[in-house]
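Residues determine shape. We examine one folded chain.
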Amino acid sequence: MAGHSKWANIKHRKGAQDKKRSKLFTKLLKEIAVATKEGGPDTDSNPRLRLAIQNARKANVPKDNINRAINKGSGSDGTNYDEITLEGYAPNGIAVFVECLTDNNRRTVANIRSYFNKYGGSLGTNGSVSFMFERKGVFIIPVDGRDEEEFTFELLEEDGGIEDVIVEGDNFIVTCPFESYGQANAMFETLKIEPDSSTLERIPTTTNTLTVDQAKTVMKLIDIIEDDDDVQNVFHNMEMTEEIMNAL
């Protein structure tokens, strides 16, 4: 690929998380607990939990850990997680959106604020950067010999709310509006297509291009935020050019 990719920041973030296996396990298990709390422990009637368990299994999270997370979400161990979002700016005007699951809001907000301050950014108020992102369902599906035109037509013809299908390297990137995410997951189950990745992403509507040195400064902040156990996802609007991807 030449220049840059619209989806490069997603794949870079996933790659960085995958390298931190224990941190990834923590995030996946928290998602299971919250999904259980929200919709109950029955995967047949709780699509969010079904997807969370699917993602955990793909990451080879042990079954016992998954079951404990379901029990935690059911309240049997007295732990409760809240979903909170935080917004701010990294150095060089890069917008940063942070999704958290926490059992202590004050601790989480204080920690995230300290990271922004330490690395030259600033934590803002709710709404300060959210308008720069669109929330979408994103599915990564291996091409595996599928014909692009036929596959695209098949998905767009189905009642799954799919809005776009593109080829990126060896994968199809399939997107849908946030509101159609559950519908799209159900469609893939019906078609017996198992995506390598199925996530809700915040896609920047515009991106900012930085130099490699500037990008490294921003990524120091992104990395320290992602390392926090209360943080599930970090989104930003820095353009991940090939030069920057190679440098990182």
In short: The mean pLDDT is 86. The chain is about 45% helix and 25% strand.
